[in-house]
Amino acid sequence: DAITKTTPKWIDNNEIGRYFCKFEGTHYVPNEMLARYYPHD
């Protein structure tokens, strides 16, 4: 079983906004609620 590396991309889904405030090109930035629950991530 091979693992394939993919290019980071925007996910077109309305639910993303419930947890993340923006996309930084390589990752999503968590919103305040998620950052509070996972402060070290």
Automatic annotation (TrEMBL):
Superkingdom assignment: Eukaryota
Name used for this protein in its record: Uncharacterized protein
